[in-house]
């Protein structure tokens, strides 16, 4: 992408605000963009399957994607990551050069940057300062997977759902803001915590009765962030006494 592209201004803004590229000097980002092309994808499209993970690297500019694994026998889906503007995928294959058994699906209409993975390797060799952000970014994803495995092994569904809401909620005025997952279906929420729709629906109804969350026109909102945190604390304390 060249600087005279109509996509350039908002692409540069998204990269400067991202954890991966935000600390790079603008000339370095400009050099990187010369290796990328802009692609647009419609909501629900499959952007990446396992074979593609070793061929291309993508950076999200706008929209969300889910990174999933699916049981081939049952078709049951598990969401490993939710990615938004400024995130890159697949960082595991970028690091080790091996096929990664994941599928990446768009959850909105998307704008993404795309480049052959070998080209990105060459760019990283020319700009080793990128590793200062890349390694912590990768570490964050590894920690997220570690926490997810611990939650599945140690906590019940209600605790995992409460933690999910807390992880994706930020305090803002006048009300807390639920990010990335605010318009998720009950099935999608279940896919993020290793549960099923009927169980998640039951716990959501309990949270609604307590006034902690509300649902309006298919969007979830957190009303009482403090109460949500207290609820998680109660769950963890009760588990510790068993």
From TrEMBL:
GO terms for molecular function: DNA binding; DNA-binding transcription factor activity. The keyword Transcription regulation applies. It comes from hydrothermal vent metagenome. This is Transcriptional regulator, Crp/Fnr family. Keywords: DNA-binding, Transcription, Transcription regulation. InterPro entries: cNMP-bd_dom, cNMP-bd_dom_sf, Env_Response_Regulators, HTH_CRP, RmlC-like_jellyroll, WH-like_DNA-bd_sf, WH_DNA-bd_sf. SMART domains: cNMP (SM00100), HTH_CRP (SM00419). Gene3D superfamilies: Jelly Rolls, Winged helix-like DNA-binding domain superfamily/Winged helix DNA-binding domain. Residues 155-226 form the HTH crp-type domain. One of its GO terms (cellular component) is cytosol. It holds the Pfam family HTH_Crp_2. Residues 20-114 form the Cyclic nucleotide-binding domain.
